[in-house]
């Protein structure tokens, strides 16, 4: 019995050691696959994110230069590289090539910033003249460092597994338990690194969104300066010249002079309105957007009371509590209701319906009206700062509304309906106030 018991104990020990070895080998194989793959993914995302940000900066710089030099930019192959050279400075990635192509795919500018990579990543970003795309910037980035980091991680993992197996077989069960504790600590550190990587990626994505929105702000300013402000300036200049000619010719007919002065005044008022809209838009980024729980129904009711005098009927029910700044939210709905009123049909009263549905990011608030169809509201330019209405006049677009939603941490988009148009905005729910 004793011999049999010792044999059974020995067999049990062998089974435990064999099972532990199998588990350890399985963990080692998993480590050798997962860790390099995660390192490769992390390095690739880091390279791609930084390259995307730098490419967007280069495209914004070139777009600004093109908007200010519409007639000569295609012949400035010497000056253009100096605009984007700063994009490659201080880079944590290996940028090998940067090129500007025009609309006919002809190279306007080419910068060789490094050697030709073995594993290239090619990214493209369109450039515009302030209104429409006129070409694109092409950036080539080396992915070799990502694979090098993954190979280094795999080598470290392989050495670690061999050391653990050696300790398990040489030292015995106690050292095996210690080795398992080390593995547990290593797994915990790996989980912490992965969590930190996810936080960094979310932060980079948020920064990229702010950078893209800042580029759109710059585009609005450029369009205002290059196009919209020129129209009232031409009006003021033309009628000022007519007024001067009237004076030189003797000043006969005071009614004609009054008409000239009225046109000059109208041009100045138009310019003042456009500059006020631009100032209000740029001032949005300085306002308070700190979120707090807000009853959406109370905000909509307040806006409805202001719109009642304008013969606008608002219908809503079961609106949620959201995370927003109350004053900014009120201004947002007032702007949207005003946009709906501008496109009402002349033969029927304007009705606006507000509804809410939960989404993974918070709440989607749908604002639908029975006015003109979305196609009649210039959907391609409706989110601009100034747009042309059906009569050809310059009116405020939805740029401020979209920027307001963006600063709240959401997004705004338009959709057609059978009887009008619908604007949908996604904003965080009230939990975002306590769990940012």
TrEMBL record:
Domain Histidine kinase: 224-431
Molecular function per GO: phosphorelay sensor kinase activity
InterPro entries hit by this protein: HATPase_C_sf, HATPase_dom, His_kinase_dom, HisK_dim/P_sf, Sensor_kinase/Photoreceptor
Catalyses which reaction(s): ATP + protein L-histidine = ADP + protein N-phospho-L-histidine
EC number annotated for this UniProt entry: 2.7.13.3
Coiled coil: none
Entry keyword set: Kinase, Membrane, Phosphoprotein, Transferase, Transmembrane, Transmembrane helix
Transmembrane feature ranges: 18-38
PROSITE patterns the record matches: HIS_KIN
Cited Pfam families: HATPase_c
Xref: PANTHER family: PAC DOMAIN-CONTAINING PROTEIN, PHYTOCHROME-LIKE PROTEIN CPH1
Full protein name: histidine kinase
